[in-house]
User: Fold Flagellar hook-associated protein 3 FlgL from Halanaerobium congolense.
Amino acid sequence: MRVTNSMMVRNMLDHLQNNLGDLNNLNEQLSSGKLFQMPSDAPIKVADSMNYKAQLNRNNQFQRNLDQAENWLNTTESALKSGTKVIQRARELTIYAANDSMTSDDRKMVAKEMKQLRDELIDISNAKLGDSYIFSGQKTGEKPFEVVDNGIGDYVQYQGDKNGVKRRLNENVEMQVNLDGDEVFKKEIEALNKIYDDLDSGKSGEEIGDNLNAMDTAINNYAELRSEVGGKLQRTGNIINRLEANEVHLRDLKSKNEDADLAEVITELKMEETVYRASLASGSRIMQQSLVDFIR
Assistant:
């Protein structure tokens, strides 16, 4: 094989170009901190990074859903706690008013506070989280209870629906975060209104005392509902902890996949600079040599 000067120069230029490209790649890694700049640089690593990014996005969405669920459940628990206090106070007044020593006028005075308790429970039942009524089912823009007082036993009417409000907490868990307002408050409001009517209309102590069972049932019901909500809050807390740990793991995997080891890159860059300088020095000698130099 015949080797010519032009062939040597061409090979030398090719090697210089390759060395310069390697040097440029290392400079880009050092300046950006990333192992690749374009998908074509490392297709497999790019695919892995896209997968990690998609998992992180899903993880973040689940965390947002969990925040919404926790806020909803905490607001519900607060409403039930306040409702329990109202019912307990109503029970105390019922026991007090059931005493036969109470006169009709005395009971009418108790009726005034009972009326306030009834209205307070209605206000609690219309609790909101932001712009959403939490006890209206999926009709979150509709106030759950309106006063109708039709004189045939109904004092309030439920305006919401029976549909559940659900949140996806992870790939396998979807949780209903709301309670049916009709089941939680309707009977209790009607019970307080009945006690108020009994007190205001001069019913006997025995008749007023007959309402105590309704109060006890309401208190027990609220205790069970608070326990249910508390269990859901405990579960959301556990899921949040797992998602946070998973996020740390995914970010670590993504970092290992695409972040450059700066110490290693600097070492390689120094080596590549040495190789490139040697190539330039070698090339300068080759390009100076010609037949004329020897003839002289």
Remarks:
- The first strand starts at residue 128 and ends at 129.
- Residues 43-97 form the longest helix (55 residues).
- The mean pLDDT is 83.
- The beta strands are 128-129, 132-133, 145-147, 156-158, 166-168, 174-176.
